[in-house]
Design a protein that fits this description.
CATH class of the largest domain: Alpha Beta
Order of helices and strands: HHHHHHHHEEEEHEHHEHEHEH
Number of domains: 2
Structural class: alpha+beta
Length: about 325
């Protein structure tokens, strides 16, 4: 009986050892990962260790989010969702995306990543994050420069952002103040309201556009650099920012602003009529006076009734009724 018992126990032990061996032989780290397939199993096991796979499983990260980057130098499984979101916002070479996120992830928020890469190239952002801004110490790049009612304050900058949808103005008299520039550009949605405003302005004096011309529309970063340096020479360090902006901080860069000027034929009385007409009527066409007289302490700029910002009919009417500037408005749809 003893011999039979030993044989039985020995058989159980052998069976246990065999089953344990078989289980371990067939087991791999992907056993709990729900997205493993025959097609992706080998490459995942080649590049990821157990801890990495456990992270994928815990975070429920799908192969489409990391496989495009897994073979790139510097790939970090903990940056996977950043890589994927960056690629969705602005497609590019996987190696460039991995390098960019690895280097500058701590300079941006995950929520802002799509906005940033919808507005700036990888190269532009890399340049800004690595070199900074030569005019604004500790500048912060504006994540969503396409927000229609954006107000640029403090250390925020558009850097070299160029908005989409810029078109040449038509149907209004213009003369670009920038040397070498013959055309004036604005966002396409501004062209028609500007034309209607100009047509209506003829009631001032029965002259085309009320004897006013458009002298400024979209200004590039380079244009602003020239104007700021010119303001320094003309007004000095203390007052330059009352008349110009640090490059990257001008709202003209957004494409929603225009500056009008009286023609040479307009006398002082006519200029006053033009200013009054704009104050009373610009809102009817979706424009507001960006830097009104008497609001210098709020806007930080010298009052100028000829600088207009397009905000749309409803907002312009609300601002006109309240007597407030863009700096004082609160928007919830930025």
């Amino acid at each position: 009986m003893k011999a039979k018992r030993f044989i039985f126990i020995g058989s159980l032990i052998a069976l246990f050892v065999f089953c344990y061996y078989q289980m371990n032989r067939d087991y791999n780290e992907l056993a709990r990962y729900p997205y493993a397939t025959e097609e992706n199993r080998d490459i995942i096991l080649k590049y990821l260790d157990t801890n990495d796979i456990n992270y994928l499983t815990a975070q429920q990260i799908e192969p489409k989010d990391f496989l495009p980057f897994i073979e790139e130098e510097g790939f970090n499984i903990h940056n996977t969702l950043w890589y994927s979101k960056a690629k969705n916002a602005q497609d590019g070479d996987p190696g460039v995306i991995v390098s960019f996120i690895n280097a500058y992830r701590d300079r941006m928020s995950f929520d802002d990543l799509s906005y940033l890469l919808s507005s700036y190239s990888y190269e532009t952002l890399r340049e800004f994050y690595s070199k900074g801004d030569s005019y604004i110490k500790e500048a912060a790049i504006i994540a969503n420069p396409n927000a229609k009612h954006l107000v640029i304050i403090n250390r925020n900058t558009l850097y070299t952002f160029r908005p989409s949808g810029l078109e040449r103005i038509a149907g209004v008299p213009f003369a670009n103040i920038m040397e070498g520039s013959t055309e004036v550009y604005v966002k396409n949605e501004v062209r028609e309201p500007l034309s209607r405003l100009c047509d209506a302005a003829s009631e001032i004096n029965s002259q085309t556009c009320g004897n006013m011309i458009v002298t400024t529309g979209y200004l590039s970063y380079e244009d602003q650099t020239f104007l700021y340096e010119q303001a320094l020479l003309e007004h000095g360090q203390d007052d330059a920012l009352k008349y110009a902006d640090y490059p990257g901080q001008s709202e003209f860069q957004l494409g929603y602003s225009v500056q009008l000027s009286s023609t040479e034929e307009a006398n002082e009385e006519e200029v006053r009529k033009q200013e009054t007409w704009l104050k009373e009527n610009a809102y009817k066409y979706g424009f507001v006076i960006r830097y009104p007289q008497g609001k210098e302490a709020v806007t930080g700029k010298e009052g100028n009734s000829f600088i207009l910002r397009y905000v749309g009919d409803d907002i312009a009417k609300e601002m006109q009724d309240k007597g407030v500037t863009l700096n004082e408005m609160v928007f919830h749809e930025q």
